[in-house]
Amino acid sequence: MSAACLAIGAAVLALAQPSFTLDWTHSVERVAWVETWTVDGGALRLDRSALRGSGAGMEPGPEAHLRDGWWVSDGGQRVPELLLAASGATGAGWRLCADGTCREIGETRGAPIRIAPCDDTRSARPATVPE
Per residue in 16-45, pLDDT tens? Predict the structure, then answer.
């Protein structure tokens, strides 16, 4: 696979592989959620989502199947970006993992965090994402 670039807020993350995962605990239900994404040209493609339970706006889709205690769905949807609301009230943010390294993002109150493929001008300036 070719390298990719991911803009996370004001930072840029160069990826050796175009895939990354986001995982978090739902703020109301306290249920684990994991999504696998791929940078696919100018969009993000959801490849798989898995949640450990259901409730409060997080029902598994009709195509989901139960596997080892997780409701698993194949993705396929493409979106231009993800916006993660960083309320600071949930006790934790998201964990973004790529290329064998994980980073915590959005654990403190602040503006929504935008995750999107880099455009050509930003990908020329690699930077690190704060850990």
Answer: 889 999 998 866 666 788 999 999 988 999
